[in-house]
Automatic annotation (TrEMBL):
Belongs to the carbon-nitrogen hydrolase superfamily. NIT1/NIT2 family. This is Carbon-nitrogen hydrolase. Keywords: Hydrolase. It comes from Lentilactobacillus diolivorans. GO terms for molecular function: hydrolase activity.
Amino acid sequence: MKISISLAQLDIYFGDPDKNFAQIEPAVKMAAEQHADIVIFPEMWNTGYDLTRFGEIADPEGKRTKALLSNLAKKYQLTVHGGSVAVARDGAFYNTTYIFGPDGKQLATYEKVHLFGLMREDKYLAAGHEEDHFQIKGVDATSVICYDIRFPEWLRTLSLDNSRIIFVPAEWPTSRIPQWRRLLAARAIENQSFVVAVNRVGNDPDNPFGGHSGVYNPMGDELLSLDDQPQLKTITIDTDETDDARGFMPVFADRRPELYR
Ligand SMILES: O=C(O)CCC(=O)C(=O)O
């Protein structure tokens, strides 16, 4: 199946949800003009890592985010992968992904499973526990968030249910962009899957963020890699390439789960 994917590589206004919300519709509109089937945003785009102010600025129950993404998906007739946002839920804060289909209906929710201590997520956020699976044009896909890509066992778990695309919104600092690119390629190769990753650009008070949003095929080839400036780019992938890779080398069938822990 051919799927056109827009990568919306944004800068993020630190702790300013109103300004950040205003960036979303122009990007979705541009993706629709480029005939995208799906557009994806970076991690925690509503607030950035303004963690100490989450009580004020995290989205209660994700209501504002969900309403916006649902409306835009329907208005522009494409799937909107909402990157992730800071959400206040049940007395805690979560780093949460919402995905909406062209009919405006919610396809998936995902809460970041591996909290990133170097950016103090473990002090301010609660971790998710659930897998997420959804379909785009009938193709199975899954999605994780940023630091999660350092845990191959988690991405393998998510890939076992026939997933063909792994989406990865991120706020990945500039200093580790070489690792970002290698990790994304490795996750694509070992899961014989496409990987579609969108990082933010710009700075917050603690870090510069390096962009280099990219798309990787099941061989780990970098089909697209952006630079470190805000931009939206669209690429078409053919998910049948995952059948070719899995047919040629049956990595999933050759697993020995009884030996793993
Ligand atoms: O793993 C890394 O080097 C960066 C992870 C990160 O920035 C995040 O999870 O927000």
